[in-house]
Design a protein that fits this description.
This protein is of the alpha/beta class. The protein is built from 5 helices and 6 strands; from the N terminus they run E-H-E-E-H-H-E-H-E-E-H.
Length: 141
């Protein structure tokens, strides 16, 4: 039976307000040991700021991280899925949009996030299961 994205998503998501500075975002990513932060405005997720965004839109362009807002550096529009979406469909969406993470939203509420690392863990675990199942099947024959 196909797995729903809600079963593999990270439920504890660190977010940042769109008006915060890029410096604050970088500090929060470091403190939280994450590579991205969903960006919120008035409680609604409006984008995502990633380490890649910080490198390309701030450092490479010599922008001031002390004064530049997260809104100016974030990726938008936000690519999201509902919690009832299957893992394979979320992975296809990530490939289509060439992104490494997707947020899970239901009725405007941010429920979680799924990264390419989460997908790799899922595939690895299922691959080991299928491999063991195949071995068991052929050993019985």
């Amino acid at each position: 039976m196909p797995t729903k994205i809600v079963e593999i998503m990270v439920k504890t998501v660190v977010t940042i307000d769109a008006s915060s500075t890029v410096l604050k975002a970088a500090q929060l990513m470091t403190e939280s040991d994450v590579g991205s932060l969903p960006v919120v405005e008035q409680g609604i997720a409006v984008g995502i700021v990633t380490e890649r965004d910080l490198v390309r839109r701030v450092i490479a362009r010599r922008k001031d991280p002390f004064s530049l807002s997260v809104k100016e550096a974030m990726s938008s529009p936000l690519v999201s899925v509902r919690p009832d979406v299957f893992v394979e469909d979320a992975a296809d969406l990530m490939v289509k949009h060439r992104i490494r993470r997707v947020v899970v939203i239901e009725k405007g509420r941010l429920l979680g996030i799924v990264t390419s690392t989460d997908l790799a863990r899922f595939v690895s675990a299922h691959g080991k299961f299928l491999s063991a199942l195949t071995r068991a099947f052929f050993e019985e024959v």
